[in-house]
Specification:
The complex is a heterodimer of chains A (405) and B (289). Chain A contains 13 helices and 16 strands. Chain A is α/β, with parallel strands linked by helices and 405 residues long. Chain A has 2 domains: 191 residues, Rossmann fold, CATH 3.40.50.2300; 149 residues, Rossmann fold. Chain A has a 7-stranded mixed sheet with strand order 9-8-10-11-12-15-16, with helices on both faces. Chain A has a 3-stranded parallel sheet with strand order 4-1-5, sandwiched between helices. In chain A, strands 2-3 form a two-stranded antiparallel ribbon. Chain B has a two-stranded antiparallel ribbon. The longest helix of chain B is centred in the N-terminal third of the chain and has 30 residues. The chains are: A alpha/beta (405), B mainly alpha (289). Chain B: Keywords: Amino-acid transport, Cell membrane, Membrane, Transmembrane, Transmembrane helix, Transport.
Amino acid sequence: MTISMTRRGVALLAASVALLIATPVLAQNSIKFGYAISRTGPNVGGAAVTTIPNYDLWVKEVNAAGGLKIGDKRLPIEVVHYDDRSNAEEAVRAIERLINQDKVDFILPPWGTGLNLAVGPVLNKAGYPHLAATAVTDRAPELAKRWPNSFWMLGASSDAARTLVELLVKLRSEGKIGDTVAMVSVADGFGIDLSAAARPALTQAKFKLAYDKTYPVGTQDLAPIVNEAKALNPDVFIAFSYPPDTLGITEQSRIAGFNPKVFYTGVGTAFPLYKQRFGANADGVLGIGGWSGDSPAIKDYLARHKAANDGKEPDRWASAVTYASLQMLQQSIERVGKVDRAAVIKELQTGTFDTVIGQVKLQNNMPTRYWWVGQWQNGEFYGVAPTANDGAKAVAVPKPGWKAP
Amino acid sequence: MTNALLTGLLLGGMYALVAMGLTLQYGVARIMNLSYGEVLIAAAFAAHGLFTAWALSPLLGLAFVIPASFAVNYFFYRFLLLPLVRRARTRDALEVDSILATFGLMFIVQGVMLTIFGGAYYSYSFFAIPIEMFGAQMAANRILAFAVAMVIGLALYLGLTRTRIGTAIRAVAVDPISAQLVAIDVQRTSALAFALGGALVAVAGVLVSMFLTFSATSGVIFTMKALIIVVMGGVGNLLGCLVAGLLLGLSESFVATYVDPGLTLAVNYAVFLAVLLVKPAGFFGRAQR
């Protein structure tokens, strides 16, 4: 009995030692990346526009160049991916599977604030760098402290609202607009956060908030909202909306002939679909996000993205940031020169990176510069605020009148 | 006031249009079709494709989409649902089976659309010109959708009440067992009603695509709305469908204009509950058993 126990023990020990030795001895001939992304469910719209094309593009480009440069050789990227079905539990399960079963070297984040928050603790516990490129949350600074491996690339939503109000204050002081504002917001995460931040900021800046209403997600007729806002004849119209509503509100405003001096819509304004749908009528519309449309790096990125995606353009906000976050991860891994996740995290925290959105150096795991307000000008969605950013275009106000399509 | 009234009517007309097909499928064929909204979205994609690839107006596109959807839905009924119909001992059993079967079908149709079109939002601009009516600016494409809904509603009503096959359809809706006694082929009639419902939802999909942004996964919203309207109007009753649709549209528009746009969803369900409390079988439904 004792003997057999010992024998089994020895066998087990031998096996585990063999495994332990075998793993590092086996020469690594690829680097394994894993991700779980929403290929079904309500998040598909965002993931399909902003995240998936950039992951595909980046992997294709790195592998075309021979792979990631580790030491003096190049290792191609191998990818394992799952569908998180837009579901937090599913996303967490997939990430755990990537870590424990697939034993991937690095994990790319899911799309959206909710899912990034959901997978944050797991990635932190396992010590994987977590470059949340499509999460906007006011708790980003706090989260970056709690999970030192997490990087919050899109910043805090209240900054978006505050930057917009600062821009309005500037326009008012230049005499370009008056002080009546009509604001609507979708009754869901994004709309609630932004309107909650904009409300006090507007009142503090002595704007008259003539209309301030929310509407449920999936509202199919936005005519009553637009008509009400129009009746108040505001100088500024703000809609913290989701993509379908962004398109609906714009369409309805054009039809109702509602043309305030400042016309701002939410998520989706920066989508290529917006330009495609409204053509010249997009001109002058303000929205959340933006990029330095004239920078050579962005122009080059746009061209490569189109070439790799059957001519499909990226969105003009989180797409470039997502791609930049991949470049940062790549540069960190190459600088560290091996799959040492702790060292990669350290490099991300302290290094300076050349990316399509310019030079990025993180502070407290967050970028120091964001585009919060963009404007369609001659078919490109330029960042216009914060006005102090490099490459900020002057905002064109008042918005030109709607043209017949 | 005019604004709220007109907007409500246009929205209500669209709701009624969306729900008409389901009232035939559920009321006559007794199939609780959970993949209904997916068929609507498929038609919307078809209209979008025809419009962007060949600049074919969605109205002309109907000439392709209607027969195609009729055929596909006939096929669904014939090969997917008929075995369930044959197996089911009672209508209630069929309802449960059909819910499960069409729930699966929903994922298949959605999956196919996701593979082909991806998850992105789709939208195009057609006939989106403002038209002035009684001093209010309305979108021409919405007015068009409303007009088509009314025409189809009327044509269907006449078809169901004035023709032989329409009478047979109504007979099956009322009592499929007795209908057999007067030599009505219940299975064929049900198949026809189901396919007709499919053709109707395709029309709704094409018209809705002219002014709503959609994606491969947005079908479920339409299934839900159609379901509320069908139950509210009385299952299998076209007139009820029209009235319920208009009521929902008007209540949404008035609440959004005069109370708060945030309450539209609440009002939808409040009206639904109120109708069910007063008339459990819906506006024009007969109490069963």
